[in-house]
Write a structure and sequence with these properties.
elongated; Rossmann fold; alpha/beta; 261 residues
Length: 261
Amino acid sequence: MQPNPLRHRDGSAGDANYGVIGERYAHFRRPDPRIAGLIETALGAAQAVLNVGAGAGSCEPVDRTVIAVEPSQSMRSQRPPHLPTAIDAVAEHLPFGDASFDASMSTFSVHQWKNLSAGLREMRRVTRGPVVIMTCEPTELDRFWLQDYCPEVIGVEAGRYPAVERIAGELGGRSEILPVPIPLDCSDGFNEAYYGRPEMLLDPQARLACSAWSFVGDDVVQRFERTLGHDLSSGRWNERYGPLRTQAFFEGALKLIVGRT
């Protein structure tokens, strides 16, 4: 059998190798109940839900029947015991019949797919009701202070995330794009989640749970650590961004796209 060209050696689909970067992913990428609540609302009354690119299960509903799809063995192994075992498959080739699910969802996954259009078609094909996608709008990533300290990481993310208008358009039907306010104590550790806790991004393990950092060189990371570390110790970061430490929510690039038939 020929190896699937959509996969890394651990089964990861897309451009990031989660066999390397995903070792402590579940520790830092824990579901945030407020963000999960927005997804629950978007899923509506659906009982049978497909989660595509499910990873370690962040934001996955626990009060519905969920089928999880995740191509990375590293991610599948980190799913907690109370969640269903994930099926080894990719978004572009979902092993289910037409209209098999009441709803489907995908969080922080579409930028990993090799073929966005094919993945969205597959989700729409197997879903009777809403298709719910949480992702980032690439043109709004520079709202975050990281743009001033490591524009290379923001550039990587902007180049990987597809435009939310494109996703909404390809889902067809009635699609809605909703901003997702990020809480100050957000437990899901993506980059913007640390808008008021900059010290967290000096933790290499926290950065490793955000795949964009795996695309920049060691020299870039070292410069970032040196510059941010200096500005935190000198008080310069607080002078520029101090109010973010007590700002309850941050509206950055995070979006929820709800595609309805």
